[in-house]
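Running this now, will post back.
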Amino acid sequence: MIQNSTARIALKVLGVIVLLYIMIYAEVFSRSKEQYRNAEEAYTSGDFESASIYYARAVRMYGPGIPYNRKGIDRLIEIAETFESQNDPENALHTYEELAAAIRVIRSFYRPYHEIEMQARKNVQDLEPTVIEIQRQRRAKEEEAWRQAQQKQREQQHPSQQEEHPDPGQEQNQRQEPSHEASP
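Update: finished.
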């Protein structure tokens, strides 16, 4: 009698565990499919930035046998390569970063798509110097535009206001000029 009731309890516990696994798997499958559909809508409308976010979410919803993970990975690679071909290294870098991060957070008994993650990381490393230089040049242009706007604003002020608020650069130059008077 004890063995029979123990076996029944064990089967019930096993049944509950299997049922929970199926429910969790179905939820993950459903969410992955939803994110992939959202990504496809953004992709077909040409909104690659939003599409890459949705594809990365689909990749994160990993479960063995769920097709949307691999489809999302393939689309992210395609988007990154499209950005590279359009000479847009900033968005390509961002897309490769999304891909590597999405794969990195997958938890399983093994590391699926590890080689793809490593290739995405390598692509990030290759693109970083180019993106840093582009951002440096952009900041320099913005600073120059700001300086020109400030100069134009000072030039438009009334002469009496210009004397009250002299150009800081001119003051500094006047202080640095050596005196030509001979000392006694």
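Residues 179-184 have pLDDT under 50 and may be disordered. More later if anyone needs it.
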